[in-house]
Amino acid sequence: MATTRTAPLPPTTGIGSDQCQADIAAALRSRTTLPPYDEVLRLIDTLKGHLAPLVDQAKGHVNEHRPQDGAWRQAIAGAEFQLRAGPGNGLVSATHRLQALARCLLSFHRHLNPDMAAGDR
Length: 121
Fold this sequence. Notes:
The protein is 68% helix and 0% strand. The two termini are 25 Å apart. The longest helix has 29 residues, at 37-65. By secondary structure, the chain is an all-alpha fold. It has five helices and no strands. Residues 1-14 have low confidence and may be disordered.
């Protein structure tokens, strides 16, 4: 299957990159035990707060400059799902939701901030 690369969107403004990266790292941290439920819920809310403005920025850019870009439209739809989704019915499902949200945010953050993302690899 051939893959297509899309050009990155312009850098984001007003996002605390260091804090965003720290929150993503906290969400994806490898653990032998699950984190407390209240910590998972707090991190879910925090990551949604980071992701929402990135999705808005991406939507504006795609609609204005790249209306034919289906890959970004799919990424935006996936991110919107992550923003709407609840934590689930228990700690395990909430932790899985947190990790999916963190991976989605990491992807958006890297695409929207390519200069900062170069140091993440």
